[in-house]
Amino acid sequence: MGIALDRLEADPVLATLAQLRARIGARFPERGLYSVSGELVELAERVAQSSVQNRNRLHVVRIVSRVVIVVVAALTLVALGFAVRSAAMEGPEHDVEWLSLVESGVNDLVFAAVAIWFLYTVPERLRRSETLALLHELRSLAHIIDMHQLNKDPERLRASFTPTAVSPAMDLTSEELEHYLDYCSELLSLVGKTAALCAEESRDAVVLDTVSTIETLTIGMSRKVWQKITVLNEVRRSAG
């Protein structure tokens, strides 16, 4: 199967996630980061499945909503036609009564327009609700990944570092810490890619804005991780 060059496909993202999870498991099978990678794989699979399911279900919902729109429009036109005919044949004798009749007709048109607009936007609102729920889980997972790297401070590997009684224990070597931080950065990047999969099936402004927010969030978190990797390399050079 060829890879599309004009859109982000789910299969390469899932394959990359599975490979990253295997790499994390090979080095840190007992750490929470491995469990988090499994949660991200499961969530990415749900995003991919949701895209296919939504496409099929929303196609049906869209057809039904369009049929109902036609029925509502037809009933409104028929009702207005009967009202105009009745008014022409047995119309009110005074101008005030004509004004009341016109006002009633305008109200009917407004209500019909509101109903048509509601039916027209039903498919997109259904997709938005489900997609935003998935994006909320992705945002939460990004913060969980960030928590895993939060206390992994390479400064504590310096020979001159003096810990306090409440300093977190550093149970990683400099090489292990580099791999750990690198995995955190890759996981954050793939959270952003998984969020971008949601945008491939939607043109909803709210969804696109939420995806952009998550991508900005993960980029900022990843930047902090790479700052730590830079410090770690400096610690290594000073120790050598």
Automatic annotation (TrEMBL):
The chain crosses the membrane at residues 63-84, 104-122. Keywords: Membrane, Transmembrane, Transmembrane helix. This is Uncharacterized protein.
